[in-house]
Structures are given as C-alpha cells and as structure tokens.
Amino acid sequence: MSLPKKNPTTSNSWNKLAQFAKNHKTLQSYFEADPTRAERFSIAWESFYVDYSKNHIDEKIQEALVALAKDAGLEEARKAYFSGETINQTEGRAVLHTALRATPDADVRVDGENVIPEVYAVRKKISAFASSVIDGSRKSSTGHSFTDVVNIGIGGSDLGPMMITEALAYYKNHLNVHFMSNVDGDHVMEVLKKVNPATTLFVVVSKSFGTQETLTNATTAKKWLVDALGAAAVGDHFVAVSTNLPAIDAFGIQAENVFPMNDWVGGRFSLWSAVGLSIALAIGPDNFEELLDGANQMDTHFESTPFEENIPVMLALLTVWYNNFLGAQSEAVIPYTQYLHRLPAYLQQGIMESNGKSIDRDGEVVSYETGNIIWGEPGTNAQHAFFQLMHQGTKRIPAQFIGFAQSLYDNKDHHDKLMANFFAQTEALMSGKTEAQVRAALSNKGMDKVELEKLVPFKVFSGDKPTTTLLIDRLTPKTLGALVAMYEHKIFVEGIVWNIFSYDQWGVELGKQLADVILKEFSASTMGEHDSSTTQLIKRYKG
Fold first, then answer.
1. Which end of the chain has fewer surrounding CB within 10 Å, N or C?
2. Residue 95 within a domain
3. Pair 404, 470 in one domain
4. How many domains, the chain?
5. Is 459 a domain residue?
6. Do residues 341 and 318 lie in contact, with contact meaning Cβ atoms separated by under 8 Å?
7. Does residue 273 lie within any of the structural domains?
C-alpha cells in the first residue's frame, strides 16, 4: 500500500475553508456568542487536557478541516503508517518508530517478518547494559565504576536523547551524561575537559558510522582516551549504536558492545530505539520503559480515535488552517517548565526536516504552503523576550502553551506563580486591552489628559492572538513519551494533508557534499569553481 496522492487544493473541503478564511470571526466574538465554547473545543485524554477554543474556528470550520483530512486519505494513510508499509517511498523504507514502543504481543511486519521480537531483544540488551553501568558492575579499564557518559552523535542522534535527558533530569541517577554533537573542536574540548578518562563511557551513535561530524568527534575522543589510558582501554570505554560492523571493529569497539539500528527508523524519530541508550543510562531502564509506554499509549489514541477527538489530528489541522488559509508562517511552542527548554529545538528538527518540502508525492512542485517555522523558549523567560512581538507585533503567530498541573518538587508558591502566568498569557493574547481600558487605567493614575492621549495608542493590545493550551497532570517519563509521540503523529497528519513525503531529508545532503569538496581544497594548491563570494571567503579563510 502506498500513500494516497491527492492535491489538497482540488478538494471541496479546501475550497470551503478558503471561503471561511475570508469571513472568520475574532476570538472575542466567538466567546461572547458562546459561553460554553471551551467545553466543546477541548479534548480530555488520560492525564492530558487540550483546550483549543482560543483558535479561530467554529463548528463549520472544524467540520471542513476534518473533511479535508478525510479527503486527503488520512484514514488509509494511518493504516499504512502503523502496518509497516513503505511510506518513505523516496528511500524505499517503512516508517516504524511506533513499533519500537509497541506491546510484546504486537505483530508488525516488514517484508513479511514480524519485527517485534527483534525490538524487544534490543530493549532487553539496553536494559541489561544500562543496569550494569548504573550499579557499577561494569567497570572501566582502570577498574573504576563509570561516573560520566558522553553521547557522540548529531541530529536525531543528539537532539532526541539530549532533550529527553534534560526533560527528565528529576529522575536522573548518579551518572552525568554529556552530549558532543557539533564538529566544532572547541565544543569537543569543552566536553572533554569536564570528564575523567578513567571513569568515562562514550556512546557513539551513527547508523553508518561514517557521519563526518560524529566520526571526527569520536576519533578525537578516542585519541584523548588513548593518550591517557592506552589503546587497550578503547574496548572498555566505547560502545556504538550503529549497523556498520566492519567500521566499528576497525575503530576498536567490541562486537558485544554494539547496539543495532533499523533502516525503518528515521534519525529524528529514533530516540525510542538503541539511540536512547544514553537516556536509559541517565534515568535508568525502568524509566526508559515508562517513556516508551507513554508513547505507545499516544500511538493507540492516534490510531483508534475519531478525528474530532484525536489530539494529534486536531493539532495538525489547526496548523494547516493557519498555515494555508490565515497566512501564519510560524508556530511557537512555549513549555512552562524549564525541564522542557530543549523541546522547541527538538521539534524544529522533527517538524521542519520532515515537512519542509516543496515537491508533492507525484513529484510536482506544490502550489500551496507546506511546513512551518517552529520556535520557542520556556515561560516565563519568553514573556520577557519575544512575547512583545506576539502581543503587539504585526505577525499572526499561533502558539502552543504546555504546562503541568503539579510541580515535581511541590513548591506551591513558585508553581502557583508560574501557572498564573501560564493562564494569564493565553487570556491576554486573546482578549487584549482596548483604548477605553487603557484610557481608564491611565486616568485613574491622575495622568494629564494631553499626555494621556499621546500614550494611549502605545498601550493598546489588539488581542485576537490564537493559542492552544496543553495542560498535563505531571511531567513523568510516561507523560513525556506521550507528548513527544503526539508531535510525531502531528507531523504525519500534516504531511498527508499537504501531499508530501515527510520521512526523507534530501535537503540536508547538498551542503554536506559541497563541504567535502571545500575541505579538500583547504590543503590543495588550486581551488575548484565556486561563485565569486564563496571563492573570496575561502581565500580569506586560508590566508
């Protein structure tokens, strides 16, 4: 089964939405007309409560959005997604990160073979290895227990494990986990100066074991270790998540310390696989399993719930509504917890690498917007930075607010203040502040009338700024797993509606290929052909 290929602009639902976009109402008027609106435009599921009532939709718009999903073939595509069909068609691969967190009795087949037994074999190996490092039974070459872990990877091999490890720092054990990603040598040395070679374990994550940045960094780390402890230490201090056994063996990593990857898992969706080894080391294998279980619960919700009550579907359709009909080019993700400070960066890769495409599934250039720009920072920090643009700027920026009803350390004073801001900002963005309200407030301060009138325009807030609120009971491995899986499925729905392939990433290749060419020219006496700007810059760099 291949994915449906349907230009969304040819559907009746698309045309309906285009008409609705010309006449949509303000958020304030929606709420004035219907005091029960919040009850009807919200979804309660497990410990999640998603309120999307502060968006520019009504029943008719929602019906048209759901119809658009159906017209795009989402029901058919969803079955292909979960069943192991080759939906990454340009690379000839299935897309089965969902299989990595499936239950043991699941039957998911790739080329006729059930992959679940293999998935659980790897999970068992991760658990055993992580437990041995954590309890100290696995020793370094010097006979010491490990105190530090350095994850060496880039892209999904770095962003996913880093984001999860930071997010679940509350559940962290005694191991200190560091991340080395950028090929920038200064970054590498800053990581190495924090650790002791005698007690450091390196986890090299690269499916091909040939990614330039990762292999360069791993080679530098190996030399650093060998200089301190000798060549024989490599086997005790390095493990690999990869499939290239010859390259791993040549590097000096023992076969039993290799954790396999599957080609049906894309890098930006790989934290659930052996790529999550650093997560299991940081928070323990039991918490890693809870993370997977939470994701599996969201998988079940997405796979079986009608579109109108389906959290990833409705969030994706809101993105389509704003992106394609109301002219919004970006989407802000604002978690009201410092633990999730890396979530926006993680979602930047997941969303923009997946849906930043301009060719549809028929190989034709699209005539409509796809993808959107993802950005954000934690609240309340963000309130003292870019919220000015959101409140009084000229751009429409739909925002997702993510908050937790309970704090982890139960500091009620802090959490009440945090959550008061969380709720207040979405209300302020929607309601704004009128001239009359500003005038009254300034008048009450006794301001001179002439000065007052000069100041009024600057203190007006137009409001009508859309937000979606995700209120979750508590930040746990399980709820985090569900949250990340929710965004994964949101990506899938958007790609189906836009008629694009979400799971290849050819756009990352060209710059890397040219970098290889230029790198060779640094040590050559002559240069190849470049544009005049690039030629001038390379000459200036070479000196």
1. C
2. no
3. yes
4. 3
5. no
6. no
7. yes
Q: Is 110 among the domain residues? A: yes
3-state per-residue secondary structure call for 405-424: CCCCCCCHHHHHHHHHHHHH
* Strand ranges (E), 46-197: 48-51, 109-110, 113-114, 148-152, 176-180
483 and 528 together in one domain: no
Are both 349 and 476 inside the same structural domain?
yes
Residues 334 and 476 in one domain: yes
Beta strands in 214-274 (DSSP E): 238-241, 258-259
Q: Which of 449, 512, 520, 542 is catalytic?
A: 512
Report the alpha-carbon distance of residue 387 to residue 393 in Å, rounded.
9
- The 10 Å Cβ neighbour count of residue 276 is 26
| Residues 512 and 478 occupy one common structural domain | no
Q: DSSP label at 352?
A: I
> Of 244, 262, 288, which closes a domain?
288
- Read off the amino acid at residue 449: K
Q: Which domain holds residue 43?
A: 8-71+305-431+466-498
Tokens encoding 346: 């993680």
Is 384 known to be catalytic?
yes
Would residue 353 show up in a list of annotated catalytic residues for this protein? Answer: yes
Catalytic residue among 213, 353, 377, 494: 353
In a structure prediction context, what are the per-residue pLDDT tens digits for the chain, which is 543 residues long? 679 999 999 999 999 999 999 988 999 999 999 999 999 999 999 999 999 999 999 999 999 999 999 999 999 999 999 999 999 999 999 999 999 999 999 999 999 999 999 999 999 999 999 999 999 999 999 999 999 999 999 999 999 999 999 999 999 999 999 999 999 999 999 999 999 999 999 999 998 888 899 999 999 999 999 999 999 999 999 999 998 889 999 999 999 999 999 989 999 999 999 999 999 999 999 999 999 999 999 999 999 999 999 999 999 999 999 999 999 999 999 999 999 999 999 999 999 999 999 999 999 999 999 999 999 999 999 999 999 999 999 999 999 999 999 999 999 999 999 999 999 999 999 999 999 999 999 999 999 999 999 999 999 999 999 999 999 999 999 999 999 999 999 999 999 999 999 999 998 888 888 999 999 999 888 889 999 999 999 999 998
Same domain, 140 and 270: yes
- Assess whether 227 and 374 both reside in one domain: no
> Of these residues, 124, 144, 384, 449, which one is catalytic?
384
- Take residue 497 and report the two structure tokens written for it: 């509606």
Tell me phi and psi for residue 137, to 5 degrees.
-75, -25
Contact, 328 vs 153, CB < 8 A?
Answer: no
Cβ–Cβ under 8 Å, residues 104 and 44: no
For the purposes of burial, counting CB atoms within 10 Å of the CB of 63, is it exposed (0-12), middle (13-18) or buried (19 or more)? Answer: middle
Structure tokens at 483: 């949250």
DSSP-derived letter for residue 93 is B
Indicate the length of the chain as a whole number: 543
Q: CA–CA separation, 390 vs 376, rounded Å? A: 12
Task: Give the HSE-up count for residue 196: Cα atoms under 13 Å, Cβ half-sphere.
Answer: 11
